Structures are given as C-alpha cells and as structure tokens.
Amino acid sequence: MKTMLAAIIALCATSSIASASGWRTYRIPESGTTVDIPASIFTEPAGKPDGYGQHFRSSDGNADLTVQAVENRQGLSPAEFLASKNPPTGIIYKRISSNFFVVSSIKRDKIWYNRCNFARGYVHCVLINYPAAQKRRWDAVVTRISHSLRGG
User: What is the C-alpha separation between 16 and 137, in angstroms, rounded?
Assistant: First the structure.
C-alpha cells in the first residue's frame, strides 16, 4: 500500500512538472528583462529581490524562482560579477562567457541554478531551486526558463 501511494504521488509530481502548462512571459519594466515562467508551477509571489524583479514559489513550497535585474554600474564582466558575489564552494557546473554566466550545484537536497545575462547596463538573472531527487523532471522546465531570459 505504501509503495502504491508513493508511486501515485511521484506520478502526480511528474505530470505537473513535465507538462508545465500555462507558461507566460514575466517582464521587469524598469530593466526590460523578460523570461518565460511556468505559471502552473510558480503560483505564489514570494517577495522582492535586490534590484528589480520578483521571487516566486511553488504551491507545495518545494521549488522557487527568482527573476531579477540589477544595475551593472561598475561595468563588471560576468566573471567579475560572479566573483563579487562570493559564490559557494562546490559548484558542480560553471560556464562563463563574455555576456553571461551559469552556475549550478546541490545544497541541502536541492539543486540551485543561476543564470545571469549582461546587457544594456543591467545584469538580468534567474535563480531556480528545486528538489535534486526530481532533476530529470525539472530539466526541460529549467532549460526553457534559462533559454528565454532576455535583457532590455
């Protein structure tokens, strides 16, 4: 009975994440940042980040998304900006180019993913935290969010 219940719960979780119906474009007017977000997953506003944008949370509280833009007054490169934030040790994935960076790792059974694009005087970012045990279920959602991030 417990095994069947666990399978049903897993199936329900898989369905809602995999389908991620109800995508919409979130826009930060001050910076021109835009990103596609699955409104069917991130249903709860959860406060404001530094700079401009919005924190969102899933209804079950297991995942969160931050869409954020901060001014890049100093004209920092992606590598310089990332270093200035004192990223945690143990980063599993890191890619830095001339106009963006992506970093990801695992902390307390959650994957954290951070992508920041550099354009028009702003750093345009998405930060996503989700259960590591559901990585495969989240891959397509994280990819779409990440690839849709635009600035100005």
Answer: 9
Which neighbouring-strand residues pair with 107?
110
pTM of the prediction?
0.84
Domain limits, the chain: 2-148
Q: What CATH number labels 2-148?
A: 3.40.1000.10
State how beta strands 110-119 and 100-107 pair: antiparallel
CB-count exposure of residue 87 (10 Å: 0-12, 13-18, 19+):
middle
Cβ atoms of 79 and 67 closer than 8 Å: no
Quote the tokens at residue 60: 């079950």
CA distances from 69 to 61, 86, 92, 94, 144 (A): 24, 18, 24, 20, 19
pLDDT in tens, 79-114: 999 999 988 788 999 999 999 999 999 999 999 999
Question: Could you give the angle at which helices 135-148 and 2-19 cross, rounded to 10 degrees?
Answer: 10
